[in-house]
Design a protein that fits this description.
Blueprint (H helix, E strand, L loop, with lengths): L12 H10 L4 E6 L4 H14 L4 E5 L3 H9 L5 E4 L5 H11 L4 E9 L1 E4 L7 E3 H8 L17 E5 L4 H9 L11 E3 L2 H10 L3 E5 L8 E2 L1 E3 L11 H5 L6 E8 L6 H10 L2 H10 L12
Helix pairs in contact: 2-10, 3-4
Length: about 280
């Protein structure tokens, strides 16, 4: 199905005719990462306030869902909390004849959430791996109370799920008892209500639960996911957040929006939401 595109140039009859034949004026669609939904919606809100003729629709579903929509020409922009996989890239090339364009747009410290009353404050990467693969099953094994650990995870279409499995679990399977939830907000909600719970997600989703400090090795310094520790890569579980698109669509309102989210003003929104702005040298055009 042909993607609708917005190109509105006041006073130019030729541009208006082009928009009428190829697009719905002022529409930009964004789909993908649930981790990035609150950021995407805030970007859209601020941008539309400044550009009232532009309408931006942001939906989640997971990074994998965003890539599928991009391949099927059902979205202008795909948000992703992980890099595109080789097979997904191949499908995009098959669909529109070119490599999808990738832009890093923010930094995130992937966080571990526990209940506010949980006495545990720091876990090392190995302990986190052992907890989520089922090797460690009781909080007393990591310095907490003698209670079972309840695992909350994301669905397998989630970029956060895939990033966590690849970089923290080193490709190992999650424990069978892990409860799969549709979005980071649901993970956080469950952990906030469960004194024995633990979950993971983006740094911007922190209200109502405690973020654990994370150390690279057992006995090492526990690091909080702050802007300084993430930008310096001192925090062990940092990552980029990305947008992807068909290069042919990088024009009109889509290009204006992409340039804006990587500007100082757009990156201020990143910080306001709770993620971390990209260093200026990474905001490539």
């Amino acid at each position: 199905m042909k993607l609708h595109r917005s190109i509105a140039v006041a006073g130019s009859l030729a541009a208006l005719l082009l928009a009428a034949t190829t697009s719905l004026a002022g529409n930009v669609t964004i789909k993908g990462s649930d981790t990035m939904v609150i950021l995407g919606q805030k970007w859209a809100e601020v941008f539309m306030q400044k550009n009232p003729d532009t309408k931006i629709q942001v939906t989640g579903g997971g990074s994998g869902t965003g890539f599928a929509a991009l391949q099927n020409k059902q979205t202008d922009i795909a948000n992703a909390s992980r890099k595109i996989r080789a097979k997904e890239r191949e499908q995009c090339i098959k669909a529109f004849g070119k490599n999808p364009r990738e832009y890093p747009v923010a930094l995130d410290g992937l966080s571990l959430y526990v209940h506010a009353n949980n006495p545990v404050s720091t876990l090392c990467i190995e302990e986190i791996r052992d907890i989520f693969t089922g090797k460690i099953t009781n909080w007393k094994q990591v310095g907490g109370l003698d209670t079972p650990i309840i695992l909350y995870s994301r669905e397998n279409s989630s970029g956060t799920y895939e990033f966590f499995k690849e970089h923290v679990l080193l490709g190992r399977d999650f424990a069978a008892k892990a409860q799969t939830l549709a979005g980071t907000a649901q993970v956080l909600q469950q952990v906030a209500q469960d004194p024995n719970g633990i979950g993971y997600g983006g740094a911007a989703y922190g209200s109502g639960a405690k973020h654990l400090k994370v150390s690279a090795a057992k006995g090492g310094e526990g690091i909080e996911p702050t802007e300084e520790t993430v930008v310096s890569q001192k925090y062990p579980i940092w990552r980029h957040l990305f947008v992807y698109l068909n290069p042919e669509l990088e024009k009109g309102e889509v290009k204006v929006f992409l340039d804006w989210i990587r500007s100082e003003e757009g990156q201020k929104v990143v910080k306001d939401v709770g993620y971390y702005p990209l260093p200026a040298n990474l905001r490539r055009k």
